[in-house]
Amino acid sequence: MKKPITLFLVLASFIFGFAQNLKALQTDAQIMYDNAITLDLDKILDQTYPKVFEIASREQMKDVLNEAFNNEAMTIRLVKIDPKFTFGEIKKIGNQTFCVFEHENKMTMAFKEDMGESAEMMLEMIKESMGASEATYDDKTFTFTIQKRAKVLAVSDELTNNTWKFVNIEKDGSLIQMLFDETIIKQLGLN
Fold first, then answer.
1. Phi and psi torsions of 2, nearest 5°
2. How far apart are the first and last CA of the chain?
3. Mean pLDDT across the stretch 126-143?
4. What are the structural domains, with CATH classification, of the chain?
5. What pLDDT sits at residue 20?
6. What's the predicted TM-score (pTM) here?
7. Residues 113/80, Cβ–Cβ less than 8 Å
């Protein structure tokens, strides 16, 4: 009789622990999304996986983001939509916990001058390089509107004090390759 009760308790704690971990991830992912919408760069960087700052310092990253979102040529803004999060399996690999998830992402790129005839070529480049599901150009406001499904890696480990931190998974996967070894990349299906 002891064996079934012990087995049940172990199974129940595993399921409860998984559900709690998923709930925390869902909450943190929504906070990450909201911070991106409001362009709160400090909070965005707070939620970034700390190993990223070994590649470029936090200040360098903040400068790059500031320059990308507002420069002399254009302004980029994220548009609040229903992110429609979908979460993959939470995987424990060594001392780290991972989850790949996706969400809808919509942004505008407003140029300060008319793109003229190069707008059509730029639209095709955006679709290809960003993997956009939708992309349009408004020649009256010089604005591209882009929608795509963003893919994100959530990581929880000793570097994050076992809280969820995030890394965007870009189309070429180069950042992920700099941060994690091939074994992890393969187990997460990111190769």
1. -65, -40
2. 46
3. 89
4. 2-187 (3.10.450)
5. 46
6. 0.85
7. no
What are the pLDDT digits (tens) for 35-93? 999 999 999 999 999 999 999 999 999 999 999 888 999 999 999 999 999 999 999 99
For residue 80, what is the DSSP state? P
What pairs with residue 75 in β-bridges?
70, 110
Q: Which residues contact 12 (CB under 8 A, 6 or more apart)?
A: none
Q: Report the mean per-residue pLDDT for the chain.
A: 88
Residue pointed to by tokens 């995987």: 91
Q: Left (φ > 0), alpha (ψ -120 to 50) or beta: where does 190 sit?
A: alpha
Tokens of 68: 């990308």
SS (H, E, C) 26-69: HHHHHHHHHHHHCCCHHHHHHCECHHHHHCCCHHHHHHHHHHHH
Q: What is the pLDDT of residues 162-186, one digit of tens each?
A: 999 999 998 887 899 999 999 999 9
Is the per-residue pLDDT at 3 higher than 80? no
Q: Nearest-CA neighbor of 157 among 61, 92, 86?
A: 92
**142 three-state secondary structure:** coil
**What residue type is 19 in one-letter code?**
A
